[in-house]
Amino acid sequence: MDWQTLATDLFPQGHAITEQDQFLSGSAQVDGATVAVIGTTGHAPIGIEIALAQAQAVLATVREHPGRPIVMLVDTQGQRLRHRDEMLGINSYMAHLGKCVDLARRRGHKIVALVYDQALSGGFITSGLMADTCHALPAATIRVMGLPAMARITKVPEEVLTELARSNPVFAPGPENYLRMGGIESIWDGSLAEQLAQALRAPAGADVRAELGRQRGGRKLAQPIIQAILGGHDVQAA
Amino acid sequence: MNNSSSYQEASARERLLQLVDAGSFEELIGPAQRVVSPHLGQLNAPVAFDDGVAIGRARLDGMPIFVAAQEGGFMGGAVGEVHGAKLTGLLRRALDERPQAVVLLIESGGVRLHEANAGLIAVAEVMRAVLDARAAGIPVIALVGGANGAFGGMGIVARCTNAVIMSEEARLSMSGPEVIETANGVEEFDSRDRALVWRTTGGKHRYLMGDCQAIVPDAIGAFRAAAIEAIARQSAPELTLQALEQEQAMLTDRIARYGALPDPADIWTEMGMPDAANIAMLDIAPFKAAAAGRRAGGQ
Lengths: 238, 299
Fold this sequence. Notes:
Distance between the termini of chain B: 29 Å
Structural class of chain A: alpha/beta
Largest interface: A-B, 79 and 85 residues
Number of helices of chain A: 11
Mean pLDDT of chain A: 94
Number of strands of chain A: 11
Oligomer: heterodimer
């Protein structure tokens, strides 16, 4: 999906978003208030420059517009796979972005992410997955890597993975699987503007993804384990 | 304690037990509880009774700490649903119990592909939990010295902590060389060129770049001493706007100064390191002496 169409649907009250080298930034109007918009487009590979540009935009929002909500628009093929990125410490750039989003949250910025096209692995973990809540469009693709590559690395035959992907949310790409596991808060269908406004109105809270995964049946053990550690008791199977 | 056993060659539990004060480790959700991965069985992959990570309370030089150690021998230390939940649970419990620090002995390839989607969310939860602990004023220290290094999501998690301690043999990065070679060819990154892999991801390079705060010889006692020192240095573990603006400036400056250079050795020369071609041969003490005043500061 191209970001201009998305922005028109999301922000009928108007926006001033610009694209530069697959990096999106600007502001928009939601519910009569201004929000900051930060994101990527064109299945951007997240290299050190675009990670740094996103971090800079988050820090600028915190500094210049205290409390302004941040909307993150996610479309990435994952981290850029280049020697130069590794040499310059891409994990530090990714961590920096994650830390900036986290700082914004702690200073009272509501952060809502939307996967509007692709989300993969390293590009996703420090953007959409660091938001207060992450949502997705029904046609979005969310995954760690494709099944053929996964088959090669895990040495599990691709047919077996394909079969498992039908019934098991762990292996299949797609927002509904991430929804069941609690990684995605909701899938937006219908009026995007209304759902964004609603997400921005919801109070920010602690990380409840493991509990959502338990309730929705996609990750049955994570929350019981966390609870057992917190309560000092044995793990109570879900 | 003067423990010169190799950190790299030890198992996760050996490292952990020798790192902390003798007899002080008290494990949570230990292997006797047999909380194993719910996903590996259907792939006919072996399970581990601790899912590849030991977590618990201990003392370090008398200080109450929480500690976790990832076992590289089980699926490369990769993070699955159970493994990740143990780390997240430990970090969240730290908010209640307020140990003096949480020490993470990281050895991991990142997300466990056998549990793909669940592993990805689990790593994101660990990241949030590390930053929650820091925000609550509890320092988190990462030790990286295992043969599998710290890659993928755990390479990111390491850089979310207050301090990273590495040995020179250790590796810290994002995508493994094999992954990059598979995606973009051997000319992009020759994963069999051991020296290049070491120059690009190894402890000395990371120390010079400011991606790790301490470098030690490959000995459990050296990691212990460095961890004690790192904890003592964290008077204000939480992230601030000022600290992140400094990090932004450091990372921006790094691209400006070194972004056009082809090889880590060129970066070391540009930094003014004497005899950059022979950095690999230097012992830790003379290396640190040469690096002083030249390496980039990290927060």
